[in-house]
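User: Could you write out the 3D structure of this protein bound to magnesium ion? I've included everything you need below.
Assistant: Certainly. Input first, then the structure.
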Amino acid sequence: MPDDLQQLGEFGVIELFSQAAKPAGSRVVLGIGDDCAVWRVSEAEYLLVTTDMLVERVHFLREYITPRQLGRKTLMVNLSDIAAMGGQPTAAFLAMGLTADLKSEYLTEFRDGLLECALEYNVDLLGGDTVAAQADMVFCLTVLGVTNPDQLVTRAGARPGDRIMLAGFVGDSAAGLHLILSKSAKRLEHGYQKLIRAHLEPQAQVALGRLLASKKLVSAMIDVSDGVEQDLAHICRASAVGADIQADSLPLSKQACQLAKSAGIDPLDWGLSGGEDFVLLFCCAEDKEDQIKNCCLTELGTQVFTIGTITEDKKIRVNSQGVWLDRAAKGYDHFPGSLA
Ligand SMILES: [Mg+2]
C-alpha cells in the first residue's frame, strides 16, 4: 500500500475504510460507496444519509463567495446526493469549524442562505456542532432523506446497451471557477454571469431524481460533483460495465465554449472533467430514452441529453467525430494519486 496520501488518492482513502468496515447491522442496505448510505427503517421505508464538507481554500475562497451563497451551497451539495438516490431530503445537521476573526454578520448571512434553501426543499435543520478552527473555516453538513424501497436508485444497476444521459449542461461550473480565479474583466460581462452563478449557486435536482425514481425509468444514477468521466467511472465500477461517451453530444453551453475558446482551453476538458455541476447523470434501457426526455421536459421543463452508451468491456472511451480520444479519466481528486 502507498505510504502517503498523494499516492493513495481520495478513492484509495475511501477504500482503506470501506474494506475494513464490515457493517453488521441487519438494517444496512448500502454502506460506504454510493452517494448515500441506505438504512432500512421498515419494509415500506429506507433512510438515506449523506455527509459533505466544504473547507475554506479547498472548496471555496472567502473573498469570492458571499456567506449567503456559501450557506445555500453547503446544503445544496448534500441535497444533490439525496437526489442521486431518487430520495426526498428531510433533515440536516450542521457541524462548523469557525475562525476567531469571523464576524457575527457573516454567520447570520450564512445561516439565512442555508435556511432559505432548507425551506425551498422542505428540509429541517435539527442540530450540529460548533468548534474553533485555527486558520480556515469548515462547514460539514449531514443530510437525511427517505425513499420507498422499490424506488431506490443506486450506482450499481447499469447494463450494457443502456443509454447514458445528463440532465443539464456540464462544464459551466468549471468555466465559472476559471473566470473567478483568472480575475478576468470578462467575469463582469453579462453573458458570463451565468457561468459564475453555476459555480457559486448550484441547484440540486431533487424533483428530477424523485420523478425518475418513482417512475422506475433509470437503472443507475449519480450526481456530477467530480466531473462526468470520474462520476461515470463510479457507475461503471459499481455496475461492472464500461462506457462509450460521444463527446460531440456533450451538453456544453454556448458561453462556456466561447470562454474556453478565448482562453485557449478545450471546452471538452470542462465538460468531461470539470466538477461541481451537480446535474444528475443516469443510465436507462434504450426503450426508455424518449419517455425520459419527454417526461422531464413536460413535467419539470428540464432538457435531458443522451451522451453515450454503456458497454461490456469495463473501459470508459470518449469518441469525437469518429476518433477515439486518448484521455486518462480526469476529474477532481482531493489527494491525486495512483488510485484516482
Ligand atoms: Mg455524489
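The domain at 163-325 is CATH 3.90.650.10 (Phosphoribosyl-aminoimidazole Synthetase; Chain A, domain 2).
User: Perfect, thank you.
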